[in-house]
């Protein structure tokens, strides 16, 4: 098969590309970074360098493909995250229609259907292509973005912001406290990008007649259980994940000078996770869990943590 992979050489796209090439497929990897061109070639894939805002570039890249894996990259520099993501999604839709794409696998989020303004999945209903929406849980790899803050000391009473689990969280300057408007004993489904890549590779070779939705997870834990696993791996078994109110979270994000609309969207995303509705939807779909446990990832995290 001729398969197009978006997401450059990210945490999902690179293992996915490796997997597809090993299976004998012809793979084109789309990246906005010209510096990734040689690395993509070294994997045995074909690089396509261009912008997601360029519909013609996307159309030309998609033409002749048997299937396309697509994702919408988050940008926290955009004052209106929702408008930005809707525009990228619409660019994809136009390009798919122009290119005559027959099979699309879209990476979404497990809270996507619960958000008032940020659910982009319905835009893909315009397509005549076979479409599968993947809704993964909270990524293991986002713990990397909290690494420096887990190490931080001397900021008592202050808040620092970090991207966490695909959204944002807060960490106090008091070492060993993760904070957000979901946390504590909230039960969350965490997921390894490797397990997501496995699910994408499987779906790309299917052709369901109607739009399908597939939830993807690796392990269900409370936030405090997850924090303890990560904390133990780095020598801080007391690591806790403190639950803030929506109001406290919003205030913290505004203190970090995030645009108001963006801050409100991020609080809404986390509130959906705290409500338990995301977990209810996940269980209702009865998905098969992946293979990678958080303790496995924590070993990799600890190596990187102590190296820096």
From TrEMBL:
Residues 7-125 form the NAD(P)-binding domain. This is NAD(P)H-binding protein. It comes from Dyadobacter subterraneus.
